[in-house]
Amino acid sequence: MLSFIWAEDANGLIGAAGQLPWHLPDDMHYFKQTTMGNTIISGSRTFRSYNRPLPGRENIVVSSQTDFPAGIEVVSSIARLCGIIAENPDKEYIVTGGANLFSQLLSQVDRLYRTKIDATFSGDTYMPAIDYSLFDQIKSVKGVVDAKNKYPHTFEVFERKTN
Ligand SMILES: NC(=O)c1ccc[n+]([C@@H]2O[C@H](COP(=O)([O-])OP(=O)(O)OC[C@H]3O[C@@H](n4cnc5c(N)ncnc54)[C@H](OP(=O)(O)O)[C@@H]3O)[C@@H](O)[C@H]2O)c1
């Protein structure tokens, strides 16, 4: 199974100069909780934003390069990546971004973990357009807003319709 996880602002912005445009620890906690025990798949630019394998998860980076730290499985093509996913139908593979990788896998994704942030930011990287009529929303839960989490946000989950 193939999933995406990301957070976007009210305009669909996801990145700024290679980093996240916001600081939202509640979403980082949700990311950790959702991905833990699964395999995460990142484009090399997204990987470079944290630059180490995330513990408790298998880490795949999609790249034409090979200079990655120990603990990273480098996959050099989408075809090979799709082969790995097809070979392991009982596993959940979660794509953590960025926009480039999401675009290439959009037609194949089964589940979407979207954090919608009710604020606007400046940046340079946007989520590709998704046809949500192809998905059912199965969850919508408001996140915590407090001194450390200043922006209202909602954790949503969508699953691709089967017919
Ligand atoms: N808000 C969020 O939830 C969220 C999530 C993720 C990322 N982001 C942000 O998004 C931005 C990064 O996204 P991005 O779209 O610029 O980059 P990206 O998708 O993270 O990485 C793109 C790179 O991955 C490699 N790659 C992609 N497809 C490949 C393929 N088919 N074969 C071989 N290599 C491939 C290429 O680099 P090589 O040169 O290595 O081959 C490509 O330049 C950052 O600002 C990040 O912080 C935000």
TrEMBL record:
Any one GO biological process: folic acid metabolic process
Pfam family membership, one: DHFR_1
Record's GO cellular component terms: cytosol
Pathway(s) served: Cofactor biosynthesis; tetrahydrofolate biosynthesis; 5,6,7,8-tetrahydrofolate from 7,8-dihydrofolate: step 1/1
Statement: the UniProt record of this protein carries the keyword NADP: yes
Domain DHFR: 1-160
Transmembrane segments: none
Catalytic activity, EC: 1.5.1.3
Known catalytic reactions: (6S)-5,6,7,8-tetrahydrofolate + NADP(+) = 7,8-dihydrofolate + NADPH + H(+)
GO MF term (any one): dihydrofolate reductase activity
Family: Belongs to the dihydrofolate reductase family.
Role, per record: Key enzyme in folate metabolism. Catalyzes an essential reaction for de novo glycine and purine synthesis, and for DNA precursor synthesis.
Protein name, as recorded: Dihydrofolate reductase
